[in-house]
Amino acid sequence: MYRQTVDIWTDLHQELNSFILSKVKDVEITNDILQDIFLKIQMNIHTLNDSSKLTSWVYQITRNTVTDYFRKAISSIQIDNIDIADKEYDEPLYQSLSNCINSKISLLPDKYRQAILLTTFESYSQMALSKELGISYSGAKTRVQRAREKLKELIIDCKNLDIDDKGNLISYQSPSK
């Protein structure tokens, strides 16, 4: 017979709390996610066919719920509100460049856009990115590197950029309105 949800809570909530907190780095969000997980457990315990696999089943629910949280968080980041231009420049030219780069980020495939947004704008390290996405550290490094390469290709294709032989930005002319 399956254990009561109260027993599962007693046995696993502290361990799951630590696991989730290591991923999201926020106590309130951790508590919300933990509550969601135990609701899912209670609603779906009848689907568990082998009670000896309870802990792995609960961890799968936990990983999926944390992943869902990050997907929602990533999709709520408004690219239009990200200002890439250096804060000391308020000139329209730099604002135009920022808008150009923002539009290029939005063209990246989801997995690369997510890597760029988290590592560049949310200050995630590549190690933190690997944990958040549930991929290896080398996989996270590769994803960030490919994301940067793809973004650079998109930016270099802009007609209003002057690029040197090594692919470095030399100058930018604001597009005509």
Biggest beta sheet summary: 2 strands, antiparallel
Integer-rounded radius of gyration = 22 Å
Report the strand count: 2
Largest sheet, spatial ordering of strands: 1-2
Strand content: under 5%
What name goes with the CATH superfamily of the largest domain? Winged helix-like DNA-binding domain superfamily/Winged helix DNA-binding domain
Give the CATH level 1 class of the largest domain: Mainly Alpha
CATH fold name of the largest domain: Arc Repressor Mutant, subunit A
CATH-scheme architecture of the largest domain: Orthogonal Bundle
**Overall domain count:** 2
**Low-pLDDT regions:** 79-91
Number of helices: 7
Indicate the overall shape.
Answer: elongated
Q: Helix coverage percent of residues?
A: 55-70%
Q: What class would the helix/strand composition place it in?
A: mainly alpha
Helix/strand order, N-terminal first:
HHHHHHHEE
Task: Summarize the model shown.
The chain has helices at residues 5-24, 27-44, 54-75, 92-106, 110-121, 126-133, 137-156; strands at 161-163, 169-172. Helix content is 65%, strand content 4%.
